[in-house]
Amino acid sequence: MLDVLVNVDEARDDAAVIRLGMDIVSRHRGFVTGLRIVDAYPLAIAIPGALVVLDAEEREAKGQRAWWDELCHRHRVAGAWEVIRGIRLPLLARRSCMADLTIDCLPAAGKGALISMDNVTRALLSGASPMLLVPSAWNGSLRQARILVAWNSSAESTRAVRAALPFLRAAEQICILDGARDEVPGLLPPPLPLAGWLARQGVPGRVVKRLASPAHVGEALLSEACAMDADLLVMGAWGHSRIGEWLLGGATQHVLREANLPVLLAH
Questions:
Q1: Contact 179, 212 (CB under 8 A)
Q2: Would 245 disulfide with which of 1, 58, 179, 250, CB 3.0-4.6 Å?
Q3: How many independent structural domains does the chain possess?
Q4: Domain of 252: which CATH number?
């Protein structure tokens, strides 16, 4: 059974993360948990009246269980509603470890902002489950999806592909953008045998393209996604030095900043 966790910030039926979560679980006969985190910061608790406000927010969040139960019933899926009070980053990372996939919004950041410091992407670095990040204004579908897979034979990209298997098996079109380096005997291990593994997993035929310029991976991924009108981008996250990605940018940060389609990330 596919266990999906949806990070709910707004109790809205039409929110992109909720629509996508319900759709995925109904098609794959899974279980969906709606998670509402009531943010509590240690320093803020010292402010007079802060605990009263937090208590009110937590009561309101728990009162949304009836809305979530009705939503699950309407979509004919099994689900649960959880409310947790605390610091968002460790809570999200810890709770997501029990899910096969966590669905959340793409970070909303201005151009040039350090998206890698966003709680969602920091949760990935803290050992969270693979995450399916969705633009807040997205109105698409993953039914018979066109999927672009960014592949470089790394552990991160392998975990992303494994998490995407339910979507890959049902995909209408799959393109693998291969950036794996050729083997250097004695220095680099050979690329992982992705083609054979996908065939054994029941993934249909796919097109494989070589990544032309490793210097601009993020731009190349989004350009290819646009060219094939992709519904989903699958990729490993923060494959290089974490500090280097934070300070200098990189493929992950570029995609998170510029993507207008759902992105499935794994670290």
A1: no
A2: 250
A3: 2
A4: 3.40.50.620
One DSSP character per residue, 90-144 reads HHHHHHHTT-SEEEEEPP---TT--GGGSHHHHHHHTTPPPEEEE-TT-----TT
CB-CB neighbours of 89 under 10 Å: 17
Domain assignment present for residue 138? The answer is no
**What's residue 246's pLDDT?**
46
In a domain, 124, yes or no: no
Quick: pLDDT tens for 107-137: 875 544 455 556 666 777 777 899 999 998 8
Question: What is the pTM for the complete model shown?
Answer: 0.89
- Residues 2/28, Cβ–Cβ less than 8 Å: yes
**Domain stop point among 53, 81, 105:** 105
Cβ-based neighbour number of residue 62 at 10 Å: 14
Same domain, 94 and 158: no
Tell me, yes or no, whether 7 lies in a domain: yes
pLDDT digit string, tens, across residues 172-188: 999 999 987 766 666 67
Report if residue 19 sits inside a domain.
Answer: yes
Which residue range(s) make up the domain with 258?
Answer: 146-266
* Residue 200 CB coordination number (10 Å): 9
Indicate the SS3 state at residue 226: helix
